[in-house]
Specification:
The chain is α+β, with helices and mostly antiparallel strands. The protein has helices spanning 9-16, 34-52, 70-90, 94-108, 171-177, 205-214, 221-241, 257-267, 309-314, 323-330, 334-339, 363-372, and strands spanning 116-119, 124-130, 164-168, 186-193, 197-201, 274-278, 287-288, 293-298, 315-317, 348-352, 355-358.
């Protein structure tokens, strides 16, 4: 992309974006046929972009190739590829579906349009596990060991029999992923990455918008433009990965087709570690100033037993704890008062309608404060 410091195009474009153009976690009607539903949702986004953003973006950004349809052509390409992938999958042509999907990612994202974002070294994540009347250790809170791959089931970003490390920004997000399971019966570990990570982001518009302004002073104009354009091009993928499941008890969930193909694609890439994605169980309208995303990092090696060699190097983990265990150890809440201000920004959460609470004062905040100074270990 050409340097263009005289014009602050990124600010002009960001101000033209409206949340109604970027609908995620879309809900199907009971009568909807999924391939038709997703085709319409993608078509609506492409039409909305063409009507409201084409002039501000394609006709304004000075691409090095001189073209005036760079972004819209990539959006249409990705939309058509997603539709074709789903159609092939429904017709039992799984190999062809995978090829079409992989080829579209390779074709759409290159040069100016970067699909992969970086996570700094030393970020803190959390992982949870239900109590099983045993004393868990750190090994129990890592990914499912290879010798137990038979218990790995299929979920939105999970392939049957294929282990992966699932972690979250907060213990609250973990709790929501466990369907609000009794909090005292969950164990939590802190996990920190020991090197920079490369992830594909599946972001809500609000998160993307906030990230733009939070990092505006840390990026030059070209970097800001690249960040915006990447989101615009990636959005069809975001949309296809965030459709709420219509039949939760069904064995086949078509809403998982694209997310599972995406995790399969990443598992073959040495330069992509995982995916950052929103929880379909979290009501993000109830949060303020609080990151609550999930992450999945598929194994990149295969052993008869134990854990992925590469994930062991990338992530260190603390010994697990629980809310009940921490209360037994401390027998007071005073321990939290000494350090809580340095643990969290003033994030808010609304667990009861109309009742906002400071996140650091909740049980989730207390667990994270307890884990703050715990050592992390290499397995």
């Amino acid at each position: 992309m050409k340097s263009n410091n005289e014009l602050k195009l990124s600010n002009k474009i960001i101000l033209s974006l409206k949340q109604e153009y970027f609908k995620t976690s879309v809900i199907q009607n009971s009568s909807d046929y999924f391939p038709n539903f997703i085709e319409k949702a993608l078509k609506d986004y492409a039409n909305s972009y063409r009507e409201h953003l084409l002039k501000e973006v394609d006709l304004s950004v000075p691409f090095t190739n001189g073209r005036k349809d760079v972004i819209i052509s990539k959006i249409i390409d990705l939309c058509e590829s997603i539709n074709k992938t789903i159609d092939l999958y429904y017709n039992g042509k799984f190999h062809e579906a995978t090829s079409i999907f992989n080829e579209s990612l390779e074709r759409v994202f290159f040069n100016d349009i970067k699909m992969v974002k970086q996570i700094r070294k030393g970020k803190t994540f959390y992982r949870a596990r239900k109590d099983e009347d045993v004393l868990f250790n750190k090994e129990n809170l890592f990914h499912v060991p290879f010798q137990f791959r038979h218990i790995v089931s299929t979920t939105r970003y999970s392939l049957i029999g294929f282990p992966a490390l699932y972690i979250a920004d907060t213990t609250y997000t973990c709790w929501e992923e466990f369907e609000r399971y009794r909090l005292r019966d969950l164990w939590f570990s802190k996990i920190q990455n020991q090197e920079e990570l490369s992830v594909i982001e599946i972001n809500h518009f609000k998160e993307f918008f906030n990230e733009y302004y939070n990092n505006e002073t840390n990026r030059n104009e070209d970097e800001q433009l690249a960040y915006i354009l990447s989101y615009l091009v990636t959005f069809p993928l975001t949309l296809a990965c965030t459709v709420k499941v219509k039949n939760p008890k069904g064995n086949f969930k078509p809403e998982y087709i694209i997310p599972q193909l995406l995790i399969q694609y990443i598992s073959t890439k040495k330069d992509i570690d995982g995916i950052k994605f929103p929880s379909t169980k979290v009501d993000y309208s109830k949060l303020r100033g609080l990151n609550s995303y999930n992450y999945v990092f598929p194994v990149k090696s295969n052993n008869e037993s134990g854990f992925c060699d590469k994930l062991i190097e990338k992530f260190h983990i603390s010994e697990p704890t629980s809310l009940e265990l921490e209360e037994i150890i401390h027998n007071t809440s005073n321990v939290y008062l000494k350090s809580k201000s340095s643990v969290h920004p003033i994030g808010e959460i609304e667990l009861i309608n109309g009742k906002k609470s400071l996140y650091r004062d909740t049980s989730f905040g207390k667990i994270e404060i307890s884990l703050k100074n715990r050592k992390v270990y290499k397995l």
